[in-house]
Design brief:
The chain is mostly beta strands and 274 residues long. The protein has one helix at residues 2-29; strands at residues 43-44, 64-68, 79-82, 88-89, 97-106, 112-122, 126-136, 144-145, 149-156, 167-175, 181-190, 195-201, 209-218, 224-232, 236-245, 251-258, 261-272. It has two domains: 43-156, Immunoglobulin-like (Sandwich), CATH 2.60.40; 167-272, Beta Barrel (Porin). The model is unreliable at 1-23 (pLDDT under 50).
Length: 274
Amino acid sequence: MQKHHILYLAITALTLGGCGSASNSLANAITDPFTPKEGGYRQLSNIGSDEFTRTGLLPGAASKIQVTDDQFINTPNHVKDYSSRDAIPLGHKRQNAFTALPYVLKNAANQEIENGVLEVYKQSYSAVVGAQLHSRTEPGHPATQTRDFYVRSIQGEFTNNLPTQGIINYKGRAMAGSDNQSNGLNYQIDYGARRGHGSITGLNGFGNIDLADAPITPNPHGHNVINGAANSATHGVGSYELGIFGPQANEIAGKAHFNNQPNKEVGFAGGRVN
């Protein structure tokens, strides 16, 4: 009887240990998408191309972007030019928070063609980058003031092996300008059905945004993405696209644009909460 009792205790301990490992794995996948913290996605790479925005931060292979980062003051990286071969460091920036980086876009002749502020929102495994334009310049002409906002980059560590079942909810933030940001992203993916849908609220001038139900499909690079219809209560119909990032489908990041407001795009990113 005593041997049986010892064997039962050993099996129970192993079983509980296995459950604990599974619970810890799930706990690591679940995030708090609204609390800023250290660490996370370390750099903006491939700044001359992008799987979602095509051109990335640069309009051409010979162009450059000059970025000012006041956390690097009194160092060579304080005001620095980056080409398509370079990566912009982000490891010192907090995740789950917006970071504003003034920038100047230059053509192949090193002439300014655009300036403004990069609005970077990074998570543990991904980042979305918006450009709040201040002015555009045609060589030989005065600068033209503008308040256009475009999502210039969506990047990260794509999820290679998606869950095969279960519904995962994501919550996070959205932006449509330096002064237009919200905590109103809600998105749900049914991994059994391989479909997702959601909404964005709280952005000035857009009203409620519906991100319609759409399937998960591979993009030309073999990464899992969702492309669907978007509808703004103010601006009407448009479309959205997002990627799924992290080893356990931890995050999503994407953008939406609307046919009647082509110069005001919406960037969004969120982490799983279940």
